[in-house]
Amino acid sequence: MTIHVEGLVAIVLFYVLILFVGIWAAWKNKNSGVGDGLDRSENIMVGGRDIGLFVGGFTMTATWVGGGYINGTAEYVYLPGFGLAWAQAPFGYALSLVLGGLFFAKPMRSRGYVTMLDPFQQLYGKRMGGLLFIPALMGEIFWSAAILSALGATLSVIVDININMSVVISALIAIFYTLVGGLYSVAYTDVVQLFCIFLGLWISVPFALSNPAVSDIGVTAKKTIYQSPWLGKIEPEDNWLWADNFFLLMLGGIPWQVYFQRVLSASSATYAQVLSFLAAFGCLVMAVPSVLIGAIGASTDWNQTTYGSLPPKDKDESDMILPIVLQHLCPPYISFFGLGAVSAAVMSSADSSILSASSMFARNIYQLAFRQSASDREIVWVMRLTIFVFGALATAMALLTGSVYGLWYLSSDLVYVIIFPQLLSVLFVKGTNTYGSVAGYIFGLLLRIGGGEPYLKLPPFIYYPGWVTQEKVHHLTGDVEHFVQQRFPFKSVSMAASFLANVFFSYLTKYLFESGMLSHKYDFLDAVVSKHSKEIMDKATLVSNHDNIILSEMAPVRQVLGASLAGTFTNTEVLSDDGASSPEAFHNED
């Protein structure tokens, strides 16, 4: 296999730059936040809560603008039968950030949480927090694996280097600077990476457009030249399917730790909202070159290029249309610059997801569920260990699992149908409890899994109205694959059912126990009768004192632990933004 020296040099220089910025950020901010009452572990997780607008805007945008985002957008615009009409990610995720900023950023940031799972564990208990950790962890790990897999394929297209080696090196660099600097390194490298993505792709677009093999994309948008128009259209029978996928992106894009990590690191609740709105605009801007590259791919006579007579869609390589356009329609030095952009996109997502997963494990599982007396130093080492373990796991899946995209699709669906309704309940619905949370979890899980997952060849056991059998032809082998397509919006229905089950069973159990129809001894989750039992996170309960909501420790603990955990939920600097310090304030029945 030949190696393009120029491409390899470009990649090495780019990776060295990213590594340097990551280490510099860690050194620059090594003591930030510690003097303000934040422990070292919380400093790694939320960056001292002093991320400003400039860095915060970039790192919030990079939450979603990754390898999957730019490659996937280009792929859907290129694909015949789909086109721009089905490239939902830019608008879906932009609206997700707007809704997150309007409704979720302020209550989460003003209450001083450290991770997305904190309100769940505080209200529903540590065991329920552990259950909700499972889909959240799956989403982060499978997302990292999917984009690392995409990176390997991309690098192999342009540089002709071994896929496994490129994936491992990229993952090691991202893991290393995340280990060293935590959120600070992730945030500062995001600035460099986003700049490289924007510059790299925009430099490539004019060269690709001016290639003689490319027709006018304004013409191919509406007329069939080499394939169906790249604007695409939505058939009437697919309206509900389109809407279901759009709501999945718009609402399912909110309950992710990678998003809330940025929200919780903002210097105030208002800043957290502004960062969300800035990132929504950034997502739309960053999608433009990807849309153009997909349109260029659909407007190209590939017979005139070095790619060959068959177009990528006939070689089952539609998912790599972006690197293929860079490779075959741009001069070599431009394609290598664009390659740096793709690498940047992948690393900006992988490092965020790995840090998010390790933050939730170290805090919500290890510290709050198993080792409440753990020292700050111990938590830091658990974080470092899990950053390495989760990073290695994502890398192994990228290299060894052929269905990594299917796993990510399913896990992101579970985040939507399970975690989003739970987040709605814990923040905005008064009176939900652990019994309702468990019921909502089970309802959402069964209804979603019951619909099947074609990417994993998982057959449905619930056939929703309007289901059809479709066939997929593998062009290279000629194999025909049949699968069931659910045209009913079953993902959104599963989410709604999960939410309603949570509310219904919460009020039902509350009525049964408080009316005496069920004996108090059957309240085995301590969710109604003993609401403020030791199961509630950190043995903390909310009490009223001169109309101020504060935390009072119910059991004696070591002073350093009390300060650490109380500081988690009471942030005097920002409590005035919202007037409440935990979801209990909304659920407290006086």
TrEMBL record:
GO terms for molecular function: choline:sodium symporter activity. It is found in: Presynaptic cell membrane. It catalyses: choline(out) + n Na(+)(out) = choline(in) + n Na(+)(in). GO terms for cellular component: axon; dendrite; perikaryon; presynaptic membrane. The keyword Glycoprotein applies. It is a multi-pass membrane protein. Keywords: Glycoprotein, Ion transport, Membrane, Neurotransmitter biosynthesis, Sodium, Sodium transport, Symport, Transmembrane, Transmembrane helix, Transport. One of its GO terms (biological process) is synaptic transmission, cholinergic. It comes from the Eukaryota. Pfam families: SSF. The chain crosses the membrane at residues 7-27, 85-105, 131-159, 165-184, 191-209, 271-296, 333-358, 379-400, 406-428, 435-451. The keyword Ribosomal protein does not apply. Belongs to the sodium:solute symporter (SSF) (TC 2.A.21) family. Homooligomerizes at cell surface. Interacts with SEC14L1; may regulate SLC5A7. This is High affinity choline transporter 1. It comes from Haplochromis burtoni.
